[in-house]
Amino acid sequence: MLVAFAVYAAILLAMIGVAWYGWVSLPSDARVPIYFGLSYNKFVSKRIGLAIYPAAGALILLILVFVNGYVVSPIIMCLLLVGQVGALRLARRASRG
C-alpha cells in the first residue's frame, strides 16, 4: 500500500511540475485546452487550465487509494499526465500564432 501511494504521489508531483512549467513559460493571456474524451475541445484561462489537471489527479488519487484501485489508478493518473502535457503543447502553439 505504501509503495502504491508513493507511485501515485510521484505522478501527482509530475503533474504539479508540468503545471508550474506551463505557468512560467506560457504568456499571461494564454488559453489552455481541457481534454474531454475525444479531443481538446474547450479552452479556458491559463489559471484554470493549469490547475484542473493536478486537481483531477489529486481527486483520483484520493478516490482510488480508498477504493484500493492498485492497478487502475496509476494508469488513469498517467493518462491525466499525458493529457496535461498535450494540453500544454497545444496552448503553446496557439499562443505563438
Structural features, described:
- The chain has about 100 residues and is mainly α.
- It has one domain.
- The chain has a two-stranded antiparallel ribbon with strand order 1-2.
- Strand 1 and strand 2 form a beta hairpin.
- Helix 1 packs antiparallel against helix 2 and helix 2 runs antiparallel to helix 3.
- The model has no long low-confidence stretch (mean pLDDT about 85).
Write the topology of this structure:
Layout: H1 2-25, E1 31-35, E2 40-45, H2 46-67, H3 72-96
Antiparallel strand pairs: 1-2
Helix pairs in contact: 1-2, 1-3, 2-3
Q: What's the N-to-C terminus distance?
A: 47 Å
Proportion of β residues? 5-15%
Strand order of the largest sheet: 1-2
Q: Calculate the mean pLDDT score and round it.
A: 84
Sequence stretches where pLDDT stays below 50 over 5 or more residues? none
Instruction: Work out the number of β strands.
Output: 2
- Computed over alpha carbons, the radius of gyration is 14 Å
For the sheet with most strands, the description reads:
2 strands, antiparallel
Tally of distinct domains = 1
| Shape, per Cα inertia axes | elongated
Order of helices and strands: HEEHH
Class inferred from helices and paired strands: mainly alpha
Helicity range of the residues?
Answer: over 70%
Number of helices: 3
